[in-house]
Amino acid sequence: QTRSVTGKVIDAGTKESLIGVTISIPGTKTGTTTDASGLFSLNVPTGTDKLLVTYIGYQEQMVSITGTNLTISLAADTKNLNDVVVVGYGTQKKKDLTGAISTISAEDITGRQTAQISESLQGAVPGVSVTRSSAAPGAGATVQIRGVTTLNSNAPLVVVDGIPVSSMDLVNPNDVESFSVLKDASSASIYGSRGAAGVILITTKRGKNGASNLDYNFEYALQKPTALPTYVNSPTYMRYFNEQATNDGSATGPYANDYIVNFDARRAATPDLFPFGNTDWQSLILTRDYAPRQEHNLSFTSGTEKLKTKASFGYQDIGAFYNNYNYERYQFRVNNDIKLSDKFNANVDLSFRRLNNLSPVNNPFSGQSPIYEARLMPPIYGATYTNGAYAIAKDGRNPLAQLNEGGTTTGASNQLQGRLALNFKPIKDLTLTAQVAPTFDFDKSKAFSKKITYTNADGTSSAATNTALTTLRESRNETYQLNSQFLANYTKSFNNKHNFSALAGFESIYFNYETLGAGRDGFALTDYPYLSVGSQLLRDNSSDAGQESLQSFFGRLTYDFMGKYYIQANLRYDQSSRFAPGFRGASYPSFSAGWSISEENFMKNVKWVSFLKLRASYGGVGNQRITNPYQNNAQNYYPSQASIDLSNTALFYQNGVLVPLTTAAQTIYAIRDIRWETTKSSDIGIDAAFLNNRLSITADYYKKSTKDILLSLDIPYNLGYDRPTQNAGILDVYGWELGLNWKDKIGDFTYSAGFNIADAKSKIKNMNGTRQEINSQQVNMEGSQFNEWYGYLSTGIYQNVAAANGAAKTSSAITAGDIGYVDLDHNGIINADDRVLLGGSLPRYQYGGNINIGYKGFDFSMAFQGVGKRLSRLNNDVVRPFQEQFGNFPTLLDGNFWSKTNGAEQNLAAQYPRLSNTSSTNNYASSDFWLIDGSYFRLKNATLGYTFSKQALLKKIGLQSIRIYVAANDFLTSSKFPKYADPESGNASYPIVTTFLGGVAVKF
Amino acid sequence: PGSDNFYSNQNELELAVNDLYRLDFWTPVKESTGAWEEFFSDNCFYRGGSGGNPVIAGSLSSTDGNVQTFYQNCYKAIARANTFLESKDRAASNTPLAVITRLEAEMRLIRAYQYTKLITHFGDVPLILKTQTIEEASNVGKTTKADIYSFIKTEYDFAAQNLPQSYGAAVKRLTKGAALALKARTALYMGDWETARTASLAVMELNGAGAYSLNTSYAALFQRAGEQSAEIILSIPRDQTQKVSSVPDDILTRNAGGFAATMPTRELVDAYECTDGKPIDESPLYNPLKPFDNRDPRLAATVVPFNTYWLGYNFNPHPDSTQVWSNKLGRKVTNNDTRAVAPFATFTGFVWRKGVEQSWSDTHNEDNDAIIIRFAEVLITYAEAKVELGQADATVLDALNKVRARAYGVASTQTGSYPAVTTLDLTELKKVVRRERRIEFAFEGLRYMDLIRWKLAEKALTKPVIGLPDPANHNRAKWPFPGVTPIDDDGIADYSGFGADVKILFTRSFDKNKQYLWPIPAVEVRLNPKLTQNPNY
Fold this sequence. Notes:
Chain A is mainly beta and 1004 residues long. Chain A is 9% helix and 49% strand.
């Protein structure tokens, strides 16, 4: 007995008919597909009350037969697309993975509404640590996969559509189709010498077969600082300054008592006279309470059988809290897929990016940013006179005048990248791919630092200036990178039981750069930033160049038996031009295996377990990133060569006339046998899904051991050279990751929630008997964690002179009110030998999570992120008075420091040492005194959106849908930090911001 | 180029030697950062600097950045010299032997001078005479100061024998005179009076091209006008257009757009004799209300006298002079050089004049040549060595009087026109020599090593730094100074009797238990188990 069921299948979003949808009777091979109008007709046996509806790219649906003419709405499913995971030089099905690979959906990246991709990863993936120290226009975040691997650069390799790039922030977030993080050696070893710090694979969206689409998205955001330090007022500043002067042995301080006690009266009478300013520099400099950010994104998709195209254009404009600071980004991308024949197809991609940066030149006095200057400058200096003109402030160092009149740096960088890939399928299971991808960078910058001439309060001209000369520095840099690959992919299945795949490949990377710099000093005019206008005498120019290449062979073999038992092996052989001949080659093998327990017969009856798989892997990856600590950590392409530096000039006389002569010296010691750094990593993991796939869990435990770490170790000064990079020591890292996801649907109400947490702990096993100290605060040495805090153990603040005199001290200058330390070696002196490890500086127990809710047209999502444990030190701009010997006095200290004017009880309660410049080396030395609990919890994002899909109205104006949304980022934080300080902010850095934004997405 | 194939011809050899003519390797030279040795002495007070001034505050430690840089730069020069000496013969086939030998002499002289700096500051240090591996450098022990000294004496001799006295029309490089003069300075610092005497005498006896003589004008010697003077034995040229220059703002007055943060001390001002050749506490010519009158002319050439025009402004720190005349602007201006107006006007009341050019207030750029050693030092070294050897004779008086007569702009024979030294009493002469060194070389960075070697640091550097009283408290009747400063036999002034009529600016506390030697940098001790730290650091 059968009956006929007819119906129509439509897209749940667009309501358009879907062609070729498979309608089948569950558990049988009986089925049909929809016709060109989306209609179907199927005879079903009596007793069958459900139909299975499946369609590529849409969620599978079980439909109850409730009548004879059905209308079935299918929802598009991006998860299905993600079922295929992008791995190194290929793809694999998610269920077949044996390595530790995390993916993030395109929605999760764009849904965070961040300006840069790197920021959107914060708290999104277990084991991916994202830290930032500022939210300045254009700033990205630092991304680390599975903690530290090396003591060198821990930035992961980022590969976009098969091409290695310098930063993931070069990609428009809206172009991202898939995002994979290769965390363990088995998945990353196919990238060999570049995979040690993990690999991030990004693929961009491509055209699809079918209807043409045009999408437009506009977003506008306002940003406001999460926290700003505050400082005491002028009379208090002067009083404390005097106290420091007398503490340091001066009979009286420089500020007359009359200035302090009669400050208001004197300020009223002579506001233009130093020190009767009362200036809140920070609020003067940060002229905007809200910094604006806007984005436009436009994309066009069209596709036929022969040609599929996706073109996108993105524009981003981010302003700042102060003037002359702006970031602008244009991104253009066209991805084409061309089918030439059944055997040949090609990908032709082209992308172009331009960044325009505008920023104030650094202050000539300090070389620092307006934020630093605004926080440093005490209130006693006036910014402007009562007549409105800029005041001299501190001897011509006026942060406000400097910002507005001191000149700017403009930078423009252009990147043009092309990719041509030709795929050839000579036989059914074999695909051969040849790819060539050149990348060109053209950057220029122009820094025009302008001399400001001040007037005195009475209007007469002043001798004070911000800098002696107006200077112009220009640079033009070019880089070229060519990536060439040849890949062969073969897959074969026997009897649906034995599944094999093999990959073999060759890759060559060639890179070169050339820089050009030119400058002049002494511009008579400050309106013409062109070199010809500057002084002929004070000219300067420079250029530099370098190149590197990498050649590699690699391969992968996978085998599985009936989707139950998996094994995989990878091998890569790399040769790098960075090393001396004889040390160039290195091979990186890896192995992994998986067991899908849920596929076993004995598990089939366990209904609540939907999926269960165990994985294990072991392998090696490498690192060749050697930097030069004496050149801003620029890459060192020739570390094995003892190069003679010809750059200096020495002056001589010849017949009484000055002659500059070139000089030559080897400055950095060369390590001829420098070689690859190697990380061996092992991982065991479990992937599981329960309750009809509603709950999924991923957990991993791993161990990494890095040997021959490339590091600039301290070397004896008597050697006479600067530190080279050496192969030094062994670093071990242990860690674990846990990810939980819940996803369900109740009628029209869909919701999901995710949580992840990870921890990693490093330990340095060997450092060749030496160590690396970082800013006299942190250390890398045998037995320490990576960048562990290192310093004295404090005994607290000496309450009286007798206590100070009775103790071992750093010098005889230390007295009551200073910080005392434990004399560990009992030799009566506190010196460098009394320092100990004080605990790790890296964040531990980093967690993150999100909640997504959908109901009819509404969508709501929320994400949070935090650090469970961390030892932090408060930034100097919050906690240290009188920086540069005259700087501001933070409110945090006001009344909280040991003072000879306090009572004994008050001093016992004092949290901070006495005011002293002489003792500052002692008091602000690295010690446990300054370390605080740096854990925090932060709401990263909340977004509420509504999608209009009332067809009739929209159709009338030619639209498919409109979504409007509002969101807030970083709007709630809980931490032990004082309210003046953000737990993520760096010292004197541009503030971390709370962002409020709104947007509209229109589909034509 | 790489080090494997460098040093293969004369040009490459010269490039390598040129590198060591850079200022980095010739400390102590004048700096504005606070690391200059004059700041460690009782001649000068620098009020800036993070952590203050560790030497005079008694807080010098093995992690001190200045100490580290000093040590590091010495060994950098040594390593480069050693590499050169080991590799120079690669060029033997295409370079005249005489040229190679001269370049070798330059390198050995520079290397010897690095050891002079090291042993005078640190005592025993590693003696490195060949290129090392990291392992070797991590296991090298100290060589005694005495052994290093006897080695470098022979090095100075080699240089003196193989360097020309002058270069004629060729590029001027290190000379025989420089080798001998630096040897004399080293010997003096080591207390090897006989060597100091013979080496300085050898310089004095040079004749013909490359012989030295005192510059006619003391003041002009330190300015651009003096850069080619026959008095200069060794100087490192500086020039703004070649990007070898520094910012002099700490030295300039506040009226002229500077900070007046680097100040002459009252102790220095009080050290100058009166024109009768007597110290101020003995001379009837001294009047504390007019302290610049009747003084050795070098005072006014070194420190700006009150009420004189300086850098375009009348310099007057008097608390009631809230306005002063500017001869640059032709009008009265607010006087930022008195603390009654500007709280950070010079604390001691003094500003430096020696070597300062008028143009600096406009260019904010100091590029006068850095004088490393000059003929006057050789003369006074000779005198000191002779006195210490107990050989007071006419040659001693002649050497001293040449320097003193030049200060007065007369010939040493015109004994009526300047206070010539006539005594042959050894005790008296020793006092004169030490006073003469202090004032002749004030603001040239030599005073600190003198205090160290004379063991006077524990006395001079434990006295407070004295300044003018606060404007509100200054007894105007006692402007500028309340009385005649008592000065003891060591030339150390005592201000304790003046009470509130002087202001204590800074309490010095040089630690005699350790600070006669600098600490070996902590990193170096840590990396090399064979290096012992100097006592009490």
